[in-house]
Design brief:
This protein has seven helices and twelve strands. The chain is an alpha/beta fold.
Length: 269
């Protein structure tokens, strides 16, 4: 009888561990995430951070975005730190005195969970996000560059100004932004008691932090990119597209492929 009870408990534990997915939360310290996976074991993962007032559930409603990742053999992960309108980051509106560590630790917990459940290592992960989610990505790249092979923020950077310094070795970053974005202009705008940061300042700051000196240009799908490399092969790119506060899933796929080509995300081949 005890044997049967133990087997039943083990089976229930296994079921619970496997239960989370597109419509069910994967709980981790500091929040949860949703995940869509390909039919075969994923070879890597794209983590997406939602914008202001977004949710993991809302992210998962974008079936074409999810399918883009799964067709590439990747897990698509929608981040969500729980109740609240925005990510808790330095210099954010409302007098928020957060240093961002709670959100950074949450993302680290998600990545640990992905490794335990799916065997996905950090060097096969790209973290991207839109608007406020892009701000989270910039802060993650600065504070925890070890978390992923590449960071691809879209239409969002540091609040107010870059920090005093960033952790090293530095991350590879591809920043994407619409040329007529009025919600998050390239120079930023005032929000409550703070302001959005200036993208140009963030790029110049990180170029200095990471000693990115070798310059190049490249074109993506609707993207015009100006890039720099450093001696370690890391890449720092600013990619402009025609349009406002928006993005296309093709931009995210292009960033993944660019990180692969640069050797910053490990190839599965």
């Amino acid at each position: 009888m005890r044997y049967l009870i133990a087997v039943a408990a083990l089976f229930l534990s296994f079921q619970t561990a496997q239960a989370c997915g597109v419509q069910t939360d994967c709980d981790v310290p500091g929040g949860f995430y949703r995940i869509d996976t390909p039919d075969t074991p994923p070879t890597g993962a794209i983590l997406f951070a939602h914008g202001y007032r977004g949710t993991a559930n809302g992210t998962m409603r974008n079936q074409r975005f999810r399918r883009m990742a799964t067709d590439m053999g990747l897990a698509f992960v929608a981040l969500d730190a729980g109740p609240g309108d925005d990510w808790q980051l330095p210099n954010a509106p409302g007098g928020n005195a957060s240093d961002g560590s709670a959100n950074f630790n949450y993302v680290a917990a998600v990545i640990d969970d992905l490794k335990n459940r799916h065997g996905i290592d950090n060097d096969r992960i790209m973290i991207t996000g839109f608007s406020a989610g892009g701000m989270l990505v910039w802060n993650l790249a600065c504070a925890r560059p070890d978390l992923a092979g590449g960071f691809a923020p879209v239409a969002g950077t540091f609040w107010m100004e870059p920090p005093a310094d960033c952790a090293t070795p530095v991350a590879s970053i591809i920043h994407m932004h619409g040329d007529s974005d009025r919600t998050v202009p390239l120079q930023g705008r005032a929000i409550a008691n703070t302001k959005q940061g200036d993208v140009g300042e963030a790029m110049t700051f990180y170029q200095q932090v990471g000693s990115f000196s070798e310059s190049y240009e490249r074109a993506g799908p609707g993207l015009d990119c100006q890039g720099n490399r450093n001696a370690s092969g890391d890449v720092l790119e600013f990619c402009m597209f025609e349009g406002g506060h928006s993005f296309r899933r093709a931009f995210v796929q292009d960033a993944w492929e660019r990180f692969i080509a640069a050797g910053q995300i490990a190839s599965d081949g």
